[in-house]
Give the backbone structure.
Amino acid sequence: MTYVSLYRRFRPQTFAEVVGQDHVTRTLRNAIASDRTSHAYLFSGPRGTGKTTVAKVLSKALNCKEGPTPDPCGKCDACTRIQDGYSMDVVEIDAASNRGIDEIRDLREKVKFAPVEERYKVYIIDEVHMLTQEAFNALLKTLEEPPQRVVFILATTEPHRVLPTILSRCQRFDFRRLTVSELAGQVSRVAEVEGIELSEDAVRLIATGAQGAARDALGLLEQCAAYTGGKITYDDAVAALGVAGFRKVISFSDEVIKGDLASALTVVRELIDSGHDPALFLRDVLEHFRNLLVLKTCGFERNLIDTPEAALADLKRQAGVLSKAVILQAIDILSDADTEMKYSASPQLTTEVITIKLVYLQSPSELQSQTIETQAAESQWVAETQPVAETQPTESLPTKEIPLPPERLSADARTGEGLQRMSSQGISAVTETASTASPKTKSPPKESPSTESRARSKSKGKPAKEDGSVVKSAHVSLDTIKADWDNVIDALKPGIEKALYYADGIPTELNENELVISFQDDVRKELASERRRRKNIQDAVNKIFGVKFSISFVLSQEPNKIEFQLEPSGGLSEERETIQGDIVGEVSQRPEFGGTSVENEPDSENDEEEVGESLRRTREAVREHPTVKAALSVFKGRVFRIDV
C-alpha cells in the first residue's frame, strides 16, 4: 500500500475536527442547520490553515445522505466520493494553472447542467486571485446568479488581489494562523496515534517552526520522525529541521553581551559552515531579544515566551545584565536585518556586519562613561608624554588639548568591555594645562599669529583662572566632535532637521562652551537657527558627548555674486550697462525692490538735475528689465547697486 503523508491522513473530515477556526465552522454549521447557506463563499487566509479542508467538509455537509447536515456522516456514498476526490459534482479547480478566460467560459457552460450524483454541484476554485482580469469579469454574472443547486467556494491567500466586484458577491471568511499551543496540541495528538515519542521541548520547537500552519506542523513532525526513527528529542528536532537551536542563540548572545567580537563572529561562521540559513538564525536571535525584553518588563509569562524549559535560566541571567534601552537597540538592528537579508548579495557578510553592530551596542549612559574613560586616558597620556621645558614659567600659557593616538586607547574602550566597571569606579576626566608643567619642561611649539590672535579674540569675556589660563568646562575637542558628528545627526529626530545636517552643516570651531557650525547655504543656516532647531541640535550634542554647548551658526562663504550686461534697449542709455549685485536669500517673502539703495554719480560737466533725472530713469528701466526680473526670480534675491 502506498504511503500517505501525515497531513493528508489526518485531514479533518468534520467541522468538529477543524482546529483553530471556530469562528468559521460555527457560522457554517448554523447556516446549514437553519437552511441559510449562500451560493458563494470566499475563504481567505495564510497557507495551511484549513481553507480547502473546510471547503470539502462543507461539500460533504451539503451532499450527505443524512443532510444537508452540520455533521456529515462520512460513511455514505456521497461522503465517500467527496472524501476520496472522485465525485462528478464536486469539482476542484486550480486557478493558478486554469486562469484564462477560456477555462471560465467552459465552467460557465458546465454549470448550467444539473448535478449528476449529488444534491449540490460545488465548485472549489483554489488560488482564485491568480485569475486574469478577463476571467474575473467572465465569472461575475454566473457568480452573482448561479443556477439552483450550485455553490461556489473560492479560496485565496491574497484577498486584496481579488476584484471588489467578486468580493461583494461572496460571504467572506478569514482564516487565522494557529497559535503555538493549538499546533502543539495537534502535533501531540498525531504523534500519539502514530506511536511517535517526542519531548515537550521538541513539540514546541515543531509548533514554533510551523509559523501558524497546521499542515506545516505535521510535515515537520513527519520529517523529524524519519530522522530519528520514532523517538524525538529537542536536539534531534534541531538537527532534523536545520535550525540553530536555543543553545547556539544563547552562546551568540553571551558573546555579544561580553563584547567579544571574535567569539561572536566564530559562532556565526560555524553556523554558516554547517549549512544553517543565516537569515533564520538572525530571526531566532531577534525572537530571543524579544523574549529578554518581555521577561525584563513583564516577568516570566509562559503564554508570552516561547522557549524551551532548559533555556529559562540563561534567559533570566541575560535579562538581568542588559538594560531595556540596549535590548531595544538590538531589536531595532535585528528587525532591519530581516529586510536587509532578503536583498543581500552576500548573506554571510551581512550577518557579520549585523554582529559587529550588536557587539558595539551601548546605551547613552555607557557612551558617556566610555567618553569619560577615554578623556581620562588622554589626560594621563598628555602628562606622560609632554616634552620638558628648559626655561621660563608658564603661568599665562593657555590650556592645550592633545588628541590621544588610537593605539593608546584601552582595550575596554575599544571593545565595549568593562563599561560597568568604569562607571562604578567613578572615573573623572582631567585636562592638563601648561601651568602644571615642570620648570624643566620645554615650551610647546608656538601657534601661528593668526591662530594666536583668533584664540585671544575668542577668549574675550571668558572666565580665567588666576594663572591666566582659560577655564575649560568641557573636555571634548573639536576633532572628537567632527569624528562623531554622524552620531549627532543620527540622534536627531527624523525630518527636516536631519535633512539639513545631512546636506550641510559641519562643526568648524570650538570656543570654550560655544560650538560653531558652518553652513554653505544661507537658507539652511536660517532654518537651523530657529530656536527649536537650535535646541534640538544642542540636545543631540549633549546626548552624544555629555556636554551642553551653546550653538552658533555661520556661513562658510559669502553669497553668490552675479554680474550680467544689458544691451541698449527702450529706456536705457545708448551705452552698454553693467549690473552687479549679490544674491541675498530670503526665506518667506518676495524680494522688495522699493528699498533698493542707489548710488548716484552725476557727471560734473552736465547739469546736475538733468543728469540725475536721466540716471533715475535709466536705473528704473534696469529694474524693470525682463532679464533682471528673471534673474531675481530664479535666485530669490534683490538688487542693491546699479552701475551705469
User: Anything to note?
Assistant: The longest helix spans residues 364-385.
